[in-house]
Amino acid sequence: MTRVLIPWPDLDVPAGLPVEVYDGRGDFPASAGDVEFYVLPYDTYPKPFELLGRLPSLRAVQSLSAGVDKVRPLLPPGVQLCNGQGLHDLSVAEHAMALIHASQRDLPRWIRQQAAGVWSREHTRSLADSRVLLIGYGGIGQAISRQLLAAEAVVTPVASSARPGVHGISELASLLPSADIVVLILPDTASTRGLLGAAGLALLPDDALVVNVGRGSAVDTDALVAEASSGRLRAALDVMDPEPLPGDHPLWTIPGVILTPHVAGGSASFYPRAKRLVEEQLRRFSAGEPLLHVVKDS
Amino acid sequence: MTRVLIPWPDLDVPAGLPVEVYDGRGDFPASAGDVEFYVLPYDTYPKPFELLGRLPSLRAVQSLSAGVDKVRPLLPPGVQLCNGQGLHDLSVAEHAMALIHASQRDLPRWIRQQAAGVWSREHTRSLADSRVLLIGYGGIGQAISRQLLAAEAVVTPVASSARPGVHGISELASLLPSADIVVLILPDTASTRGLLGAAGLALLPDDALVVNVGRGSAVDTDALVAEASSGRLRAALDVMDPEPLPGDHPLWTIPGVILTPHVAGGSASFYPRAKRLVEEQLRRFSAGEPLLHVVKDS
Hints:
Chain A is of the alpha/beta class. In chain A, 27% of the residues lie in helices and 15% in strands. Chain A is built from eight helices and 13 strands. In chain A, the strands form two sheets. The first copy, chain A, has a seven-stranded parallel sheet, with helices on both faces. A six-stranded mixed sheet of chain A has the order 2-1-3-4-5-13, covered by helices on one side. In chain A, helix 2 crosses helix 4. The relative contact order of chain A is 0.14. The interface between A and B is large, with 55 and 55 residues.
């Protein structure tokens, strides 16, 4: 008589609500027939998605990601979808800061030197005083902005349309020439695809750093490979196009390029925030109240 | 007739003040006999220090470091000494943040994976929500604190004596058990030497991170090697004892330990701040006004 599938055992569940743990790794739950509310396990794609078609009583799905492009087309008709907006903001912002610091302060050099047991000092770039163009100014962009300002960088935020204190994306060409660092935090949509191509990259000053923690499609990979291979630009990318990056792709080995395998959202700070949201949604479901973060109504 | 030695050519020098550039790398300046004010080149120890004894007209020395332990005993009698307090604060704070982010977000793992062309994802720790004990709460500690708070870490500052909002160093034993990350920003003095030894390290919770951007002597290296080798503690160190670290020292190869070769202070953000200070000191010297940051009077 399981009414709800939850991904973790250690949750506060309302008294009398029958739940079962399904973490996305083991067998499908036996009690699938009664499940009305399914909290999708995070980051175990694609197995939990297959279960969507095997839950005849399903009324609502809670995704723990902000982007729901993959789950949306798999939803049976009449099923409500809630997303995980905000759960990953801090984790992604923090990873962006890690990539920026690593690039500015030459961490790959020191890590190579450590592996070789070599003590050799060089002065590095700074983040302080750097002019940072933040392209994408939702929850993640704003969290990055707060951390950059605390580090005494000079921040210029850019969003899809201009508002007080925020530039519109249409002004991008006039902003790129004075950016020491450009950070992309954009979803994959028709208007963001290829946004930073050869022409935009060419407008950046020499030695500028391109950071991407949104979706890989926002940057023209071939154009970035050309500018980074020549040594004119640097890059630090958590997302790429294509992804996963094939083993023989030129990006892997370009000096001045740091790559991480799409791990910005998956850090410890996600869990307490996700658990708080799921507990609140269980309370609402149990009490018959409207769910939060509904992105598709039943 | 050179009255002042300056380390860089691109400075605003008061009209009529005879200056000569000595950057610490080439030959000693020929006009040493008339030099009254000597701005010591930064980070080119020991050559510029030898010059101190060859300047018979010397009245004042400007160091660009906050710590002047090495230069003080070399000063001829009657020579005033000014230090570079604050010039490196942002640079050091930023490097501390780089080390913390790199440790929490497993950057060495991703950099190794990149070198091997491997795409393999794992969730990591976060800095957000982490409880950070800042030991040393001068200009650098306060700059680190602002950046940690913006990253939504929980900061507990500790200084030599307690004041409102700041714990005293005598409370250290009661604070270590609840620190996920401990950051040391301490000078080398009789009271800081060996401050974090085997007993203190044993009080830290499992998996805690020890970060040192002050002086290596504050941590008992052998005790840290023991706790890190067992995998119980992690470390990220810009300063060590001994320094430079010998090529066969066990610290180099312990998993969970990141080492950088005392480079926290030497980044780009230092130069504009140092140049502004030197220009102000030249103006004061030329006008016969008292110099700033005097740490030893003539």
